[in-house]
Amino acid sequence: MNICFWCKRPKDDKEGEPEYFDYEYCSECQKEVDKGIVIVQTTETSNGNLPIKTDLYPTGKWVVVTVDELKKVLKDWVGLPDALKNRHMFMNEQTWKTFKLPN
Ligand SMILES: [Zn+2]
User: Cα of 29 to ligand 1 centre, how many Å?
Assistant: First the structure.
């Protein structure tokens, strides 16, 4: 069975072990993602997940924040323009904790 990595919902009704093959959002997740900027918690240590980018592995935690929230919290951050342009950003666990994002 093909599942959505982000919410674990099935994407088809095939028999077998739930597996994900890519980081495409399902339609439910896409609705959430469209509300703002996605922050994906990642680690540089291989954790069994497929790399989402070279040497970056999602931990499974992610959150969507509004553009206004992101601008407020990260206003001095050099990566902000890219995050706003790409509509997503990657964040390591340490920074995640610093910003008190949900666990
Ligand atoms: Zn999903």
Answer: 4
Query: How does pLDDT run across 38-81, given as a tens digit for each residue?
Result: 999 999 999 999 999 999 999 999 999 999 999 998 888 888 99
26 and 65 in one domain?
no
Claim to verify: residue 19 and residue 45 sit in the same structural domain: no
pTM of the predicted model as reported, rounded to 2 decimal places: 0.90
Look at residue 92 and tell me if it is in a domain: yes
Report every protein residue that has its C-beta within 5 angstroms of ion ligand 1. Answer: 4, 6-7, 26, 29
Closest CA to 58 of 83, 24, 34: 24
CA of 76 to the centre of ligand 1 (A): 32
